From TrEMBL:
Domain 2Fe-2S ferredoxin-type: 3-103
Key words, A-Z: 2Fe-2S, 3Fe-4S, 4Fe-4S, Iron, Iron-sulfur, Metal-binding, Oxidoreductase, Tricarboxylic acid cycle
EC number(s) reported in the record: 1.3.5.1
The protein's name: Succinate dehydrogenase iron-sulfur subunit
Cofactor: [3Fe-4S] cluster; [2Fe-2S] cluster; [4Fe-4S] cluster
Keyword Iron-sulfur assigned: yes
GO molecular function per UniProt: 2 iron, 2 sulfur cluster binding; 3 iron, 4 sulfur cluster binding; 4 iron, 4 sulfur cluster binding; electron transfer activity; metal ion binding; succinate dehydrogenase (quinone) activity
Organism: Corynebacterium yudongzhengii
Coiled coil: none
Length: 249
């Protein structure tokens, strides 16, 4: 495949950035977006030039590290698919592909396509955990939970924290991410101990670091894990529940 690849180059967070154009004449349709970047970087290193910086880890679609913008869309053209699983077969010979970092005021650029997504970590630090007594593992049937509730919770636990929802949102909101965490933990037996405190603290952090939600729906459209838009409602619902029940719950 012959491709024209426009790639964002930015030396640091306080530097101006710009796109650099790279011509690729030997791309393979089965390559992923990240493998295309690997291929380009290999050529740059061979010529003694600086490679493009981008983030990746497992490359199996489960770690959430590989977020970037592909032709203005988080991750790429395939719906519910992370960048590491987006294949060049989605593009035609001769196409132009524009690669840039996830765009959000909450994600300052570190270098090239690597951004600081610690604002998501700050939300998780406020309640993304459960309290339990230390000791030996409980029996499997000690904490009962219906299969439907468990499946519902685990469907929302599938969120990989890539942050694409924030980049897709015109307001830079992280309600899909936060809502998924709140739904997951509110429906697990061990997550109910600090349910109210979790909702108050996580929503406070959410509102301090991200924009407001206007239910545009772009977040759910690009989510690699397929988290439903209904997860957004958990932010208001869980926070209202905590306010109604008071500080003891």
């Amino acid at each position: 495949m012959n491709l024209t690849v426009e790639i964002w180059r930015q030396a640091g967070p306080n530097q101006d950035g710009a796109f650099e154009t790279v011509k690729v004449d030997d791309a393979e349709p089965q390559m992923s977006i990240l493998e295309l970047l690997d291929h380009i970087n290999s050529g740059l290193l061979h010529r003694g030039e600086e490679p493009f910086a981008f983030a990746s880890d497992c490359r199996e679609g489960i770690c959430g590290t590989c977020g970037l913008m592909v032709n203005g869309r988080p991750h790429g053209p395939s719906q519910h698919t992370p960048a590491c699983q987006q294949r060049l077969v989605e593009f035609a010979d001769g196409d132009t592909i524009k690669l840039e970092p996830l765009r959000s005021a909450a994600y300052p650029v570190i270098k090239d396509m690597v951004v600081d997504r610690s604002a998501l970590d700050r939300v998780m630090e406020q309640g993304g955990y459960v309290s339990m007594n230390a000791g030996t593992a409980p029996d499997a049937d000690e904490l009962l939970q219906g299969s439907n509730t468990a499946e519902f919770a685990l469907d929302h636990a599938a969120c990989i924290g890539c942050g694409a929802c924030v980049a897709a949102c015109p307001n830079g909101a992280a309600h899909l991410f936060t809502g998924a965490k709140l739904v997951h933990l509110a429906n697990m037996p061990l997550g109910k101990e600090e349910r109210g405190k979790r909702a108050r603290d996580m929503v406070d952090s959410l509102e301090s670091n991200f924009g407001h939600c206007s239910l545009y729906g772009e977040c759910a459209d690009v989510c690699p894990a397929g988290i439903p838009l209904t997860a957004v409602s958990a932010v208001t619902r869980e926070r209202a529940r905590a306010a109604f029940r008071g500080k003891d719950d």
